[in-house]
Amino acid sequence: MSPQSTGIETGAMRAVIWAVIRPVRHGLLMAIAAMILGISWAGYLATHHEQLHGGFEKQESALMAQETGMNMHGAESDHHSGEPDALHQHSHTGSPAMDAMQRLLRGHIHWMGLGILVTGLLLIVAFTTVKSVWKKALAWTFGIGALVYPVAWILMGFRTVIMGGETAEASVMWLFGPAAGLLLASLVGVFIILLLEMTGWYARAPFCGFFEPGPSPEV
């Protein structure tokens, strides 16, 4: 086989692969961006750990001093009459400062984990016979979810000491809820696509409108 023919075959193979992944390319880019953010955030936490943890401990100490001062002035009954304050909300570790650091760390974990997961699932979706418009939709929902979901954990972490664990969690539900919903809906979508292709039901009504015509895949 001549070098020229080998080059032509290689070019043709690249064209085929690009045609397959083209509908999900934006989702793959967002997934890779999520992994880059995860690595960068891990580096930031590693180099600023003492500064961050020390800052959270100072916030916690300031809140404790403020509460002590209020109790000394007889304001304890009024202080606890409403919703629990930051120091009296549930803590997973017993220390709001440690809870805050754990939530910041989860930002790194979720960026990395979701980036890897989304990359793999989108490559699987790219090789299915579902129509390109649905591949593009899944790429957007997966990609946005992978980028945004960890941000909610990071915001929650920075707010944990000042607002309290439960209040901080409630304060980011506007971001956490939609991101989790996008990821869950995307996973359900992939499950349905694979189920229909594996069973051959994708060629039957009413599913055939969502898939390109072609032979049923071997199971």
Comma- or semicolon-separated keywords:
219 residues; mainly alpha; 8 helices; 76% helix; elongated
Summarize the structure.
The protein is an all-alpha fold and 219 residues long. The protein is built from eight helices and no strands. Residues 75-83 have low confidence and may be disordered.
Specify Rg, calculated over alpha carbons. Answer: 25 Å
Overall shape: it is elongated
Largest sheet: none
What is the H/E order?
Answer: HHHHHHHH
Number of domains: 1
**Using DSSP, what is the number of strands?**
0
Low-confidence stretches: 75-83
N/C terminus separation: 35 Å
Number of helices: 8
Strand content: under 5%
Estimated helix fraction = over 70%
Structural class, from secondary structure content? mainly alpha
| Arithmetic mean pLDDT | 85
Transmembrane segments: 27-46, 109-130, 137-155, 175-196
Biased composition (Basic and acidic residues): 75-88
Keywords: Membrane, Transmembrane, Transmembrane helix
Region (Disordered): 72-94
